[in-house]
């Protein structure tokens, strides 16, 4: 992106395009695994606080991290292999802001349906299973929270979980909408909308994550409030 802005050259080599596609989609697969890991962490912290350090040991967390990364590699590698072995003999212009899988698949001269189906089914299974486990963990968390006698403890637990739910909504909703629209609604949904959806789930979550999590911290809220008051009132005097 920096190269495009500095030089104005929007070209990318064949190998670099597929490398970019691989790492972009692998990173999104890792992110959904991290959201599941966060949900499990919140479940243990709220429902089994006295056993937290005994359950989520360094060894367990290392195993979870390796499993998340391995799952992403095992899912994305066949997808990249299927697409890279298709012949590309027509247009070499990717109608997208980056080398997104469905956009690159449309440039193939052969039938890209196996690759597209694999992407759709694989994404649905990964996201569907993660969302199911996350929902189950939050149902158990809510049951535990509403059995707490302290209203302050309830408020803190719900605040922690609320920020997590907000991050998940920002990631899953545009992400899955992008996948299904690109596959099922490509003839009915305007192409610029498809591009926008694909960009949103990459840009919005990392942009808003610091705000969502940061505003939960009292000191950060106070500093932001004092800065806003200074900008609005002190400068106007």
Brief characterization of the structure:
It holds the Pfam family 7tm_4. The protein has 237 residues and is an all-alpha fold. 78% of the residues lie in helices and 0% in strands.
Q: How would you describe what is shown here?
A:
About 80% of the residues lie in helices and about 0% in strands. The protein is mainly α. The protein has one domain (about 1-235): Rhopdopsin 7-helix transmembrane proteins (Up-down Bundle). Helix 2 (about 15-45) runs antiparallel to helix 7 (about 150-185) and helix 4 runs antiparallel to helix 6. Keywords: Cell membrane, G-protein coupled receptor, Membrane, Olfaction, Receptor, Sensory transduction, Transducer, Transmembrane, Transmembrane helix. It holds the Pfam family 7tm_4. It is a multi-pass membrane protein.
| CATH 2nd-level architecture | Up-down Bundle
The 3D shape can be described as globular
Q: Name the CATH class.
A: Mainly Alpha
Report the strand count: 0
Q: Please name the fourth-level CATH homologous superfamily.
A: Rhodopsin 7-helix transmembrane proteins
Poorly predicted runs of 5 or more residues? none
Q: How many individual domains?
A: 1
**Number of helix segments?**
9
Order of helices and strands: HHHHHHHHH
Q: Note the gap between the termini.
A: 41 Å
- Name the helicity range: over 70%
CATH topology: Rhopdopsin 7-helix transmembrane proteins
Structural class: mainly alpha
Mean pLDDT: 83
Taken as a percent bin, the fraction of beta residues is under 5%
